[in-house]
Write a structure and sequence with these properties.
The protein contains ten helices and twelve strands. The strands form three sheets. The protein has an eight-stranded mixed beta sheet. 34% of the residues lie in helices and 18% in strands. The protein folds into two domains: 231 residues, TIM Barrel (Alpha-Beta Barrel), CATH 3.20.20; 58 residues, Winged helix-like DNA-binding domain superfamily/Winged helix DNA-binding domain (Arc Repressor Mutant, subunit A), CATH 1.10.10.10. It is of the alpha/beta class and 314 residues long. Helix 1 packs parallel to helix 2 and helix 9 crosses helix 10.
């Protein structure tokens, strides 16, 4: 039997807490983003920019998707995302249309929403079935503190973009609110976010919190019971994204798990080193590492330059 084909831009499928069985398409270079969020599970942004361009060849992305779907047609969603911000790619609309031509599987786009003020970005997303933007703050000061945007992106611009996008987008919007314990969880702060969410009018409001090691170690998760209490402050009442449990959002490949374990039992390694050595996509690796941590097979080791992973008991 020939080994599984390696893909550069496709990751998964993974079992997602929000999207079920989801096949990911990463359309941006690693950590190229409009934000440098304190809670980002992929670490610090290495290129913070608001410049839109053709970062990755559209033809290569589409060809990989075509090849994969020929042998793996059953997915709940195809998710256009990035280990950065996907709407920075000027070809995102072309990519969505190409996927729709290849398959009847619904297309979701995960975005921080920072570029929705741009009419070209809004037009590019019109054929997506589901768009999942984020709103982490109800005022400019908190926006700067949590999301640390590129200099050209303002809070008011971001909010206006979300509101205008809702007016033109006829399909589904799920607005994610990422809560960080003690940072944006005061009642007044939550009411400010809820007031803006009402203006955006998403189909769902989803409260989430940190589930994996964040870019900034001081960013802490909100207890699950508190999330449910906070949900009542939103109108309509927000949904709470279920906490991560072993078995959720896990990758399909046992071979990848074994490769990771064999590598880190020799010495602790950071995620980027593991991904590069084993050819595992960074987004897929994040979920795989958390799955192994939850099962007690590996341990997180805090380090000055980020989190390292080691085999448990070493």
């Amino acid at each position: 039997m020939s080994p599984p084909k390696s893909y550069r831009y496709i990751f998964g499928p993974v079992l997602s807490r929000r999207l079920g069985r989801s096949l990911g398409l990463d359309i941006m270079p690693f950590k190229t983003c409009t934000y440098d969020c304190v809670y980002c599970e992929q670490g610090r942004t290495t290129l913070k920019t608001s410049e839109r361009k053709n970062y990755v060849p559209v033809e290569a992305l589409v060809q990989e998707m075509k090849d994969f779907l020929e042998t793996h047609p059953a997915q709940d969603f195809i998710t256009v995302s990035a280990s950065g911000e996907p709407t920075l790619h000027t070809g995102i609309g072309q990519i969505i249309d190409a996927i729709k031509a290849l398959s009847s599987i619904p297309v979701a786009v995960i975005t921080n929403g920072s570029l929705l003020w741009d009419a070209k970005v809004r037009a590019a997303l019109q054929h997506a079935d589901l768009v999942l933007p984020s709103l982490d703050a109800g005022n400019a000061a908190l926006f700067e503190k949590i999301d640390r945007p590129a200099p050209s992106i303002s809070f008011d611009q971001m909010v206006d973009g979300l509101i205008v996008f809702r007016e033109s987008f006829i399909n589904t919007i799920w607005l994610e609110v990422m809560l960080i314990n003690g940072v944006n969880t005061a009642e007044e702060q939550l009411r400010e976010i809820a007031a803006i969410a009402r203006r955006i009018r998403p189909d769902r409001i989803q409260l989430n919190t940190i589930a994996r090691p964040p870019a900034q170690s001081s960013a802490k998760a909100v207890p699950f019971k508190q999330l449910h209490a906070f949900a009542k402050l939103f109108e309509p009442r927000a949904e709470v994204i279920a906490p991560f449990h072993s078995g959720d959002e896990q990758p399909d490949s046992e071979a990848d798990e074994l490769s990771v374990l064999n590598m880190i039992k020799r010495r602790p390694c950071p995620p980027r080193e593991i991904a590069a050595a084993l050819g595992i996509h960074p987004l897929e690796l994040t979920k795989l590492l958390q799955h192994l941590v939850d099962r007690g097979l590996i341990e997180e080791i805090p380090h000055a330059d980020g989190v390292y992973y080691s085999a448990a008991g070493l």
